[in-house]
Each structure stands twice: as structure tokens, then as C-alpha cells.
Design goal:
31% of the residues lie in helices and 18% in strands. By secondary structure, it is α/β, with parallel strands linked by helices. Helix 3 (109-122) packs across helix 4 (134-142). It binds inosinic acid (IMP).
């Protein structure tokens, strides 16, 4: 019997999910994306070579692993091909093992214009989106007027529907935002340019996943962004426009909740956030700068600097609840090397108010390097104590620890497949 294993980011994204998905796919037959779009940035390092993926599932670097994109993912067709061609140029064979759901909503150029204009008028209230058109594409889906991958294959009807939708959005762009309209012809040409190439990759993802499960395959469900960016459970309105938590698997690729065998939360050993919104444990001092520079905390999609702060165990407890997390993977432990003291947020004062103040517990740091250590015993005692404290504070088991960007720099404490 194979297993269905889920990978979820626990905070605001950038926890290092891509590396862990890539690591676990050694024993997986398929990897599935079920929400988000190319706002994600998943960095993989294999033998020192770095690859950043946005839309293509992180299993792609392992030959023979099937990669599926479920209907919950918003798809920019040109960006999908750009990413695919980049990988193909590097010698990765993709087309025979990629399946895209016909139900994926399309991200079109007017979604990007709307995303940018909305952010613009919000001024200092802006969400800090990635500017990829994610929010407006999901809005069109929920409004039941969006175009989907399947629509690309009926050119005549696609043109009629696109014209109708663009009439509406161009009216808003011109008359509300006082900016340029998006060209219908250019959108049409750009959308249909890849239709023939895409068609052989389009298939029934729900059916394929059920068939794989029935055949005893191991399947990984790759979450994008983090749990606190979830449209319902996150720090609204400073969130993304999809459900980023484990429940989204059912709606986003048609696998029911009872078919999930293990849900792994990926948690950085400290916390980061890119974009605006509340971040109670954010640091503005030399420790914050240490985390940003040693952790190379720059957004993989937009290149923006990430905000950095202490580990937020209080937030994590709720995230464990809302995802039914089975266990944790702590990433980037080595970034804490050399700090004199390390704090963990174990609660908030005034948690209901805007100015929630973290309550910290302070622990001694460690001077030794943990970079690349692959066994728990190899870690300094204070680093082990830090991990033990996280486990106790959150009542969860740490099943993996990542000590460097490379696939192999990982302490594996549980066999999932
Ligand atoms: P959107 O998803 O582009 O609409 O952006 C909404 C919020 O989610 C912004 O704060 C983004 O910075 C954040 N966000 C979106 N995708 C990611 C990601 O992959 N990692 C981290 N933050 C993200």
C-alpha cells in the first residue's frame, strides 16, 4: 500500500518546502500541486546546483516521478512554458510525465494589470503581492466567469468568452483605475499560442491520482506559500487568495481527506515573512540582520528582502491544529549558529489586539557549526535542546531537520515512505 504524504508551510511561506519535497520524492511516484500559482518560489539544490521552481512540482528533478497540477492551481500558460523550457534546456525531460488539470483557472494579462493597480491605489495599506495576478484570477474563478485550461481547446468559444470578460475588466482598468486597457488580440494570441503544445499534457488529475493510489503508488502533495497566508485561516487581508492549508487538497486536486496518510509541516528554525501584514516576532536589530544575511532571506519569486524574526511557537500551535499536522521538519537550523541567545515566542500578550506582544522564552545559543550535519547526535547540545523545546511547546514531533540547502544536508528521524 502506497502513502499519500502532504507538505505544508507552517508560517508565511519560504520555509524550504521545495527541498523537502525533492528529498522525499526519492521514494515517491508522483508529486502534485493543488493550490497557488507561480507566486511560489521553490528552491532546490542538487549537488550544489540551484534550481528555482514556481509552478512545476518539485519532483521534476527526479526521473520517472510523475508531476501533476491540480484544478486548484491558477495557471499562467506562458509562465508554465517558460519554466518548462528552462528546465528542458538544462536537460530535464518533462512532457511525458506532466499532467495538468483541465479545470485550472487561467491567469491572463488583465489579472496582472488589476493586481498591480489595486496594490498601487492601496498605497501603504498594500498587501505586498507578488504581482503575478493571483488574486484577480481566483476572483474570476469564484465569480464563475473565469476561463480555464479546457477552454483553450475551443478557439471559437474561447474568443467569445474572453471578449466578454475583458470588456468587463477593461472597463474597470480604464474608468476606475484610469490606466491602459489590455489588448484583446494580444491576450488571445498569447493564450492560444501554446494550446497545441499544452493539449497532450492535459488530463484527468483526479482520476490519475485515484489510479496511482489504487496501484499502491506513493504520492506527495506539495503545498505552496504558508498556512498563515491562507485566505480563510491566515492573517487576513494580508494573505494570498487560495487556501494554503491541508484541507485544500480535497478541493484542489480531488483527493478526499480520509486518503491523506501523513501531513508534514515545514517550519523554519526562525520566522520570515515577505510582503506586508502582522508579524509579532519580527526583529529590527542585529539579530534580524544576522538571520536575513546568513539565511539569504530574499524572495525566490520577486527578489524582495524577507522580514525576519524569532520562532513563533504560539502561531505554530494553531497551524498544527488547522492542518492536522502529523509532524514537523525544522529547516535552516544552521542559520542560528553563532547566536549567543535564541528566543522562542510561546504566547502573546494582548493577543486580540493589533499590538499583540510576544512572550519569549530565552535559550542559550551554540557556537559550533551545524551546517551539513546529518545525525541528531552530531548537533551541539544546545541545538538539540532548542529542538526539544519546540517539540514540547507545540506538542508535536520533529521528524526531519534540515541543516543546509543540499538534498543530503538533512537529519531524517522518520521514514515516511
Ligand atoms: P499574492 O499571492 O501574489 O497575491 O501575494 C499575497 C501575499 O502572499 C503577499 O504577502 C506575498 O508576499 C505572499 N506570497 C505569495 N506567494 C508567496 C510565496 O511563495 N512565499 C512567500 N510569500 C508569498
Amino acid at each position: 500500500m502506497g502513502k499519500n504524504i502532504v507538505i505544508i508551510g507552517t508560517h508565511w511561506g519560504d520555509e524550504g518546502k521545495g527541498k523537502i519535497v525533492d528529498l522525499l520524492t526519492e521514494h515517491a511516484n508522483a508529486v502534485v500541486r493543488f493550490q497557488g500559482g507561480h507566486n511560489a518560489g521553490h528552491t532546490l539544490v542538487v549537488n550544489g546546483e540551484k534550481t528555482i521552481l514556481h509552478l512545476i512540482p518539485s519532483g521534476i528533478l527526479r526521473k520517472n516521478v510523475e508531476c501533476l497540477i491540480g484544478n486548484g492551481v491558477v495557471l499562467s500558460v506562458p509562465d508554465f512554458f517558460k519554466e518548462m523550457q528552462g528546465l528542458e534546456a538544462a536537460g530535464v525531460e518533462i512532457r511525458g510525465r506532466m499532467m495538468v488539470s483541465p479545470g485550472c483557472p487561467l491567469i491572463l494579462p488583465h489579472h496582472i494589470s488589476l493586481d498591480l493597480m489595486r496594490e498601487n491605489v492601496r498605497g501603504n495599506q498594500k498587501i505586498g503581492t507578488t504581482g503575478r495576478g493571483i488574486g484577480p484570477a481566483y476572483e474570476d474563478k469564484v465569480a464563475r466567469r473565469g476561463l480555464r485550461v479546457a477552454d483553450l481547446f475551443n478557439e471559437k468559444q474561447f474568443k467569445i468568452s474572453l471578449e466578454e470578460i475583458m470588456d468587463y475588466h477593461n472597463f474597470v482598468l480604464e474608468n476606475y483605475f484610469h490606466t491602459n486597457k489590455v489588448s484583446l488580440q494580444e491576450t488571445l494570441d498569447a493564450s492560444l499560442a501554446f494550446a497545441d503544445e499544452l493539449k497532450p499534457m492535459v488530463g484527468d488529475v483526479v482520476d490519475r491520482l485515484a489510479a496511482l493510489r489504487a496501484a499502491g503508488a506513493n504520492i506527495l502533495f506539495e503545498g505552496a506559500q504558508g498556512s498563515m497566508l491562507d485566505i480563510d485561516q491566515g492573517t487576513y487581508p494580508y494573505v494570498t487568495s487560495s487556501n494554503t492549508t491541508a484541507g485544500a487538497i480535497s478541493s484542489g486536486c480531488g483527493v478526499g481527506p480520509m486518503a491523506l496518510d501523513y501531513i508534514l509541516g515545514i517550519t523554519k528554525a526562525y520566522t520570515t515573512r515577505v510582503g506586508s501584514g502582522p508579524f509579532p516576532t519580527e526583529l529590527f536589530d542585529s539579530v534580524g540582520s544576522h538571520l536575513a544575511s546568513v539565511g539569504k532571506e530574499v524572495g525566490a519569486t520577486t527578489g524582495r528582502p524577507r522580514r525576519c524574526g524569532w520562532f513563533d511557537a504560539h502561531a505554530l500551535k494553531r497551524v498544527i491544529q488547522i492542518n492536522s499536522l502529523s509532524g514537523l521538519c525544522i529547516t535552516k537550523l544552521d542559520v542560528l549558529d553563532g547566536l549567543d541567545k535564541i528566543s522562542i515566542c510561546i504566547g502573546y500578550e494582548n493577543s486580540e489586539s493589533e499590538s499583540a506582544t510576544p512572550i519569549y522564552e530565552e535559550m542559550p545559543g551554540w557556537k559550533e557549526s551545524t551546517a551539513g550535519i546529518r545525525t541528531l547526535d552530531g548537533l551541539p547540545a544546545n541545538a538539540r535542546a532548542y529542538l526539544d523545546r519546540i517539540e514540547a511547546a507545540c506538542d508535536v514531533s520533529i521528524d526531519f531537520v534540515s541543516t543546509g540547502p543540499d538534498r543530503e544536508d538533512t537529519i531524517v528521524l522518520k521514514t515516511l515512505f
